[in-house]
Design brief:
single chain; 352 residues; alpha/beta; Rossmann fold; 2 domains; seven-stranded mixed sheet; 13 strands; 27% helix; globular; disordered N terminus
């Protein structure tokens, strides 16, 4: 399938469109030049106009939610349901659209045993795991261009991976050492508020507002980096609505210079449309700051390094609903369907 031209746009459906991620997908797709959203499901809100659930869409769409039973065939189907739902009906959804993008964790891990260990239950469609391409363009772009089925990304895993990717690719991070990822997240990941997280599991990527050991996104990072990398994540909800800020504590070789680190980061990220190196000696915002990324598909990366000890903190900030979920999903859509990769994703944030 190739991108349609002119008014002959691709038809897009969203299954599970009433949550935060569904709302972010709609905000991006309703203004995408190459697609038209034709159907959005919600079992709870079937028949309700979309803006009654997503008030930021007032005046932008006349669509109403429908039930899953009323889904019609389309060109691309986004699955934005709670974890476990997509795998239970994957054959049905694959019969409705030649391209699927699943934003849950159901198809992120290729190995069924790894999935069982991470999610504490057996996968109900293990034969489909190898059919899905992991949907982080910065590490999987070529495979995504040829993909029919794409998995979404975990927002915490994305931040940790992007924080580590340049130094790992540059050979500065030795495998085997503990990589301690301290990740601060906003309330839209943990739930509507940090204290109400368990009331809204369908709206969040992480149900508990604090998870200091054994986070399931560790499996996602290890799959991407290789099992020789000992990634240990600690997740804490802080006072912001959108955002992920990852600080990964590692030991690098001693005696590196700033020029060495800049060369390493530039070798990986030069030419990437949505990854920016943020590392300045002066100013208020010398390091990546998630509040500056709200509503964007950008990820900012940086570092702090002590040349005497080799101790380093590798940094990444992003919007958990944008680059950590819906934004990356639209970026994958663009690659899969032959659009310019940045289509619909040019918003650069706001300040102050």
């Amino acid at each position: 399938m190739t991108a349609h031209n002119g008014s002959d746009r691709l038809t897009v459906g969203i299954v599970g469109g009433s949550g935060y991620t569904g709302g972010e997908l709609l905000r991006l797709l309703l203004h995408h030049a190459g697609v038209v959203v034709t159907q959005v499901t919600s079992e709870t809100h079937a028949g309700t106009p979309l803006p009654q659930v997503h008030p930021h869409l007032r005046g932008q769409t006349d669509l109403r939610f429908i039930s899953r039973q009323r889904l019609a065939p389309c060109d691309v189907l986004f699955l934005a349901m709670p974890h476990g739902r997509a795998q239970a009906e994957i054959e049905h959804y694959a019969g409705l659209a030649p391209r699927l993008i699943d934003l849950s964790a159901d198809f992120r891990l290729r190995d069924v045993d790894r999935y069982t260990r991470a999610y504490d239950h057996a996968h109900t469609a293990p034969a489909w795991l190898d059919r899905f391409v992991y949907g982080l363009p910065e590490i999987n772009r070529d495979a995504l261009r040829a993909a029919r089925y794409v998995s979404g990304v975990g927002c915490n895993a994305t931040a940790v991976l992007l924080a580590l990717w340049a130094p790992v690719r540059g050979g500065l991070v030795e495998a085997g050492q503990p990589l301690i990822a301290d990740v601060k997240v906003g309330s839209s990941e943990a739930g509507t508020t940090p204290t109400a997280a368990s009331h809204h599991p369908a709206r969040s990527g992480v149900v508990r507002p604090f998870q200091l050991t054994g986070h399931r996104h560790e499996a996602e990072v290890r799959q991407a980096l290789g099992d020789g990398f000992d990634v240990r994540m600690a997740i804490t909800s802080v006072e912001m609505v959108r955002g992920v800020a990852a600080a990964v504590h590692v030991t690098l070789p001693t005696g590196l210079t700033e020029r060495d680190l800049w060369a390493c980061y530039r070798a990986t990220w030069t030419g990437e449309p949505f990854v920016r190196i943020v590392h300045t000696a002066q100013g208020l915002h010398r390091h990546p700051e998630p509040r500056l990324l709200a509503g964007t598909n950008y990820a900012d990366v940086g570092w702090e390094y002590d040349p005497q000890s080799g101790r380093a903190v590798l940094l990444c900030a992003l919007d958990n609903l944008g680059k950590g979920a819906a934004g990356t999903a639209v970026q994958c859509l663009n690659l899969m369907c032959g659009f310019e990769e940045t289509t619909g994703l040019s918003f650069g944030g706001f300040y102050p």
